Every structure is written in structure tokens, then in C-alpha cells.
Automatic annotation (TrEMBL):
Pfam families, alphabetized: hSH3
GO annotation terms (biological process): integrin-mediated signaling pathway; protein localization to plasma membrane; T cell receptor signaling pathway
UniProt keyword terms in alphabetical order: Phosphoprotein
Protein's UniProt name: FYB2 protein
Organism, as annotated: Edolisoma coerulescens
Gene designation: Fyb2
Coiled coil: none
Start and end residues of each Helically-extended SH3 domain: 55-121
InterPro entries on file: FYB1/2-like, hSH3, SH3-like_dom_sf
One cellular-component annotation, GO: plasma membrane
Keyword Phosphoprotein: yes
Amino acid sequence: RGKDEKYKVRMPKLQMVREYKDKRKSIDDVERNIFKFKRSSEEKSKKMEKEEKLFRETFMYEKEIRVLATATAGCSVPSQRRADLPVTAGEQLDVIEAVQGHAVICRNAQGRYGYVLVEHLNFR
């Protein structure tokens, strides 16, 4: 053995309490999750703005978007036209405006807008 190894002092490894170690890991995970949440919410808000812009162009809607009521879709309905909103059964929709006789403009959870027939909606 060399001279360096002969005089090397061994330091005892400090044992960390397991509970503290687990707490530290969970705190780190929470901090990471917060940052992931912020990123996804920013992406969602950008997507919602894009959908709103498309809605205003398609429907020539100049007024402030206000939710008049919330409704639940009674049955699944695929969209027939570009202006129609495809709906699945049990989906919650925000009613924006009642424009035509049997149709209302609604917004779904993803931020998409379109016409939905009143007979497909259940109001509370």
C-alpha cells in the first residue's frame, strides 16, 4: 500500500433518518408538480384563446362572452357542419347565447364553441 492510504482518515457516514428522507422526497415532488402544472395551464390558456378567436371569426361574435347557463348533454351527437359542436352524453356545456329557434351556442370543457340543439341538452 502507498503512503497516502496509510494516513487516510475514514469519516463515518452520517445516517439520515428515513422519515426525513421521505419528507424531503415528497417536498421535491410537489415542487416539480407545481412547475408542470403551470406549464400545462399556460398551454391550455393559449389553446383557449385560439379557440375563442376562431369562434369570433366563424360566428362573427363581437359581444363579450358570458355564460348564461350550464347544461348537460343528454345524448351523444356528432357534428353535421363545421359550426356544430360535437357532444358526448353527460358532457357539461356552458350556454353562451340562444341565437336560433332550436339551437344555442355552447362551449365545452376543451374551449370549443358551436351550435347545439336545445332538445339534446338537459338544463338544471
